[in-house]
Design goal:
Blueprint (H helix, E strand, L loop, with lengths): L1 H17 L4 E15 L22 E9 L4 E10 L5 E14 L2 E9 L31 E13 L2 E18 L2 E19 L3 E15 L3 H10 L3 H7 L4 E14 L2 E12 L9 E10 L4 E12 L16 H9 L3 E15 L2 E12 L7 E11 L1
Helix pairs in contact: 2-3, 2-4
Length: 381
């Protein structure tokens, strides 16, 4: 761990040295999180933790370098080392930001995909009250893309508006919990719009679309079997192979008089795949109350999705393909409730302690319930 962090810091300082004429700012953030499920055969065991206390899965350290190349252009690089990847440092962000004037700016390079309200701060545990953003909503297997974005900031009286258009591409390793695979988002494009009123009310909307490809997931076993039996059309109907995908979300935040209320809602669909025609929706709502520098909070979230069983039409129930295809068609079926309660204690400048207890209950036969306890120290510098 120490060696990996040394490499990250050396890379950061090297970046700064190359910008001898630029004004360079060094900052960073991190967290040390411990967690454990309460049962050995637990829903969260498939995704993050086991029933043995783990200090690495969600612990991370990051260094960010911002260099003002001139009065209009800033270069940003962020190096992230995560415990789940043995603290191997990776370049998470690398982009140039150009001020175009009249409220317009553009970013060129590797940057965050604006799926969610907290997307820009996804790894910065200090930026939100929970140990992690609610898993009922924050479950996309990719977060960054290489491309270009155009933003516009402006004020309308007490309203502040920030609109962003992104065009780019993602290709590389992705994961949902412990299930790792290769994925790509081609022709990724979308809009996000954030508005804030008088610094206490925030509203947000986002719409993104891309051609989605996934290889190396458990679904491959089903589609490979179909192709073996020359059921190519049906295999193409189930897999993710350059299929049009859409992501839509709405969000809000009210932060006034020591009360915090925040929530988000999303819809996801990938045509010509197991995510087509299943009405996949995710949402959560959180209520928190500050008592000095302590904030207890509660969260309720839901995930729901049906199953498109039309893919079974024409397959006899005695066929060796029936059960694998049925399993593939129902693999995305969801009817799950997430509940959590936690507390955040800001006991020092730029440092906070957090604790959280989360449960998930599934109404789908065969899907496990789960209980997860976690605590951590988060900080920025």
């Amino acid at each position: 761990m120490k060696n990996s962090l040394a490499v990250a810091l050396a890379a950061a300082l090297s970046f700064g040295a190359t910008a001898a004429r630029a004004e360079v700012r060094l900052s960073g953030f991190g967290q040390i999180v411990a967690g454990s499920t309460l049962n050995p055969n637990d829903r969260f065991s498939d995704r993050v933790y086991t029933d043995t206390v783990d200090f690495e899965q969600e612990s991370l350290f990051a260094v960010q370098i911002d260099a003002d190349l001139n009065e209009r252009v800033t270069a940003t690089a962020q190096i992230l080392a995560e415990g789940k990847d043995e603290f191997k440092p990776e370049l998470a962000w690398a982009y140039a930001n150009v001020q175009l004037g009249k409220g317009f700016s553009t970013k060129i390079g590797r940057q965050r995909i604006p799926f969610y309200r907290y997307s820009d701060f996804l790894d910065v545990g200090y930026a939100y009250p929970w140990i992690r953003p609610p898993v009922a909503m924050y479950n996309q297997p990719w977060s960054n893309a290489d491309g270009v974005s155009l933003s516009h900031n402006t004020y309308f009286g007490k309203w502040f508006s920030q609109a962003q258009f992104l065009y780019g591409r993602f290709e590389g390793d992705a994961a949902i919990g412990r299930n790792k695979f290769q994925g790509s988002l081609d022709h990724l494009r979308g809009l996000s719009w954030d508005v804030e009123y008088d610094e206490w009310l925030s509203l947000r909307a986002a719409y993104l679309t891309a051609k989605v490809t996934i290889a190396g997931s458990p679904l491959d076993q089903v589609t490979n079997a179909l192709r073996t039996f020359r059921q190519t059309a049906l295999a193409d109907r189930l897999d993710y192979n350059n299929d049009p995908g859409t992501f839509k979300s709405l969000g809000f935040k009210v932060d006034k008089a020591n009360w915090l209320v925040v929530g988000e809602y999303s819809e996801i669909e990938v045509e010509d795949s197991v995510l087509a025609n299943i009405d996949r929706t995710d949402w959560y709502a959180t209520v928190g109350r500050r008592f000095g520098n302590v904030m207890p909070h509660v969260t309720y979230g839901r995930q729901s999705a049906g199953a498109d069983l039309s893919v079974l039409a024409g397959i006899p129930t005695r066929s060796p393909l029936f059960l694998p295809v049925a399993a593939g068609a129902t693999s995305q079926q969801l009817d799950e409730t997430f509940k959590s309660m936690g507390v955040r204690w800001d006991f020092g400048t730029n440092v906070a302690l957090k604790a959280d207890y989360t449960t998930v209950t599934s109404e789908i036969a065969g899907n496990q319930d789960g209980e997860l306890v976690s605590a951590g120290l988060v900080f920025t510098f």
